[in-house]
DNA sequence: CACGTATATGCTTTTATAGGTATATAATGT
DNA sequence: ACATTATATACCTATAAAAGCATATACGTG
């Protein structure tokens, strides 16, 4: 499990991260809220911990897990160039739609055979 | 392969998306630039296409693939609550570091056994 | 010290997916 | 019609990882 992307590919792990974003939780709380077997929770928490997504603090027999920002920031950073891409394309779409406002000569269908979408 | 997260978990697919962000490419161009066997490229492109990350346009024997924004925007949307989380925590860290500027009484090590990080 | 509670780990089985190689399909030019 | 180029797909194998269950470890309390 090398990359942060593989870590967040697992739905249960995303659910756990989603829980922890509001506040820290014990393993048992996560177990109850997500209705997930305890070993499953512990195993996913281990993966998340070793990848730096969460850290734990001992509180008697409990372990309180809380979020750490770095790995998700890494995902955020990876998205940066694509954000630029799609803002450009929203602009292009808007310009296109603007042109649609004009008198509207009816166009022929120019789609070619084998082209999708 | 249900979720967008599983799709981008694969490094070759992320590489392909990274290539396409600048401009559309044919399968052969992707193959050469990423030094990836052609069937590998085609298979990953199929996955990406079926998940809506890319679309293709026929150009003679070639197929030109280009990016579509929606699935990555979905990832971006998933990150939103975490962004709020880490901006809060950067603030907290800053306040903490500010306090460190003060006269600095030497503290004892309070870490408990079994606590990580 | 025995017991209950909380969490972690070990083992086994199942499943999904990526890679490799060969081959199929499609379009083009001669 | 045939050869060439470009891309897609089929089949097989290897591998990794998730789930389930049992069990181990750790702490706290009577």
List the topology elements:
The structure is a homodimer of 117-residue chains.
Chain A: H1 4-7, H2 11-20, E1 25-26, H3 27-34, H4 38-50, E2 54-59, E3 62-67, H5 70-100
Antiparallel strand pairs in A: 1-3, 2-3
Helix pairs in contact in A: 3-4
The first copy, chain A, binds a DNA duplex (30 and 30 nucleotides) through α4.
Structure description:
Chain A contains five helices and three strands; from the N terminus they run H-H-E-H-H-E-E-H. Chain A is mostly helical. A three-stranded antiparallel β-sheet of chain A has the order 1-3-2. Chain A is elongated and about 70 Å long. In chain A, strand 2 and strand 3 form a beta hairpin. Helix content of chain A is 56%, strand content 12%. In chain A, helix 3 packs across helix 4. Chain A has a domain at 4-68: Arc Repressor Mutant, subunit A (Orthogonal Bundle). Chains A and B meet through helix 2, strand 2 and helix 5 of A and helix 2, strand 2 and helix 5 of B. The structure holds a DNA duplex (30 and 30 nucleotides).
């Amino acid at each position: 499990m090398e990359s942060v992307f593989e870590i967040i590919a697992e739905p249960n792990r995303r659910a756990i991260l989603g829980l922890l974003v509001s506040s820290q939780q014990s393993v048992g709380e996560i177990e109850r809220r997500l209705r997930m077997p305890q070993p499953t929770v512990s195993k996913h928490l281990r993966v998340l911990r070793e990848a730096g997504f969460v850290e734990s603090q001992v509180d008697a027999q409990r372990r309180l897990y809380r979020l750490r920002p770095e790995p998700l920031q890494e995902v955020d950073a990876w998205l940066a160039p694509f954000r630029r891409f799609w803002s450009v394309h929203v602009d292009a779409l808007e310009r296109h739609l603007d042109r649609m406002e004009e008198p509207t000569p009816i166009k022929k269908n120019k789609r070619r055979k084998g082209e999708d979408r």
